[in-house]
Amino acid sequence: MGKIEDSPNAEARAEAVAIVDGMFLERMRQIHIGSSLVYPASGVVSNITIDYTTTSDSYSTFVTAHFPPQQYERKLVQATKARESALRLLSWKEQKSTREQLELKAQSGSIEDWKTYILWEKKGKKVQSRLMPVLYERAIECAASERWAAICAEDETRLAGAEAALRGFWEDYLGFQVGEVH
Predict the structure, then answer these.
(1) How far does Cα 31 stand from its chain's mean position?
(2) Rounded mean pLDDT, 129-144
């Protein structure tokens, strides 16, 4: 940001401050995680960090140095509002990624993987009412397959675990269907 101070006159300085201010606000509107991002040579600033905490701290320092004190709060509120939609989108993307990972693991995994996936879905802010019956049905299918494999292998311990899981999935599923989410 040293180039702002090197501006030849007040008009050039004001223009440089406006450009950097715009870059910060635009950056706050974007999802960003990582160590740093090098903007294309703009002649104003060459390196702005891209994690929200660092970006916010840098913006605060920038505003303190280049704006009157009475504008500080308004500018920071503006920056906070700019990043809110990006953070909501980031949260949604993280949830989607987690859901995909749990689903993949459960599809090729065990009864415990299905329990983990269902529990994660039920802990969400908004339970996916159309998804839950499908998850329970697939978990029940997994437990029933495990039960059948235990019967064929004549493994009493494995059979007891599979039957307990099968019964648990059915009870939770029926409870969910009548509105008693456990």
Answers:
(1) 10
(2) 89
96 belongs to a structural domain? no
Cα–Cα distance for residue pair 160/34, rounded to 1 Å: 48
Look up the pTM and report it: 0.50
Q: Do 115 and 169 have their domain in common?
A: yes
Q: Which residues contact 23 (CB under 8 A, 6 or more apart)?
A: 39, 42, 44, 45, 48
103 inside domain? no
50: containing domain: 2-89
Q: Is residue 35 part of a domain?
A: yes
* Closest to 176 (Cα-Cα) out of 109, 131, 112: 131
Rounded distance, CA 66 to CA 14, Å? 9
Please give the distance of CA 14 from its chain centroid, rounded to a whole number: 37
- Tell me what pLDDT residue 177 has: 86
CA-nearest of 90, 147, 137, 146 to 117 is 137
Q: Is residue 70 part of a domain?
A: yes
Q: Answer yes or no: are the C-beta atoms of 72 and 58 closer than 8 Å.
A: no
Residues 29 and 78 in one domain: yes
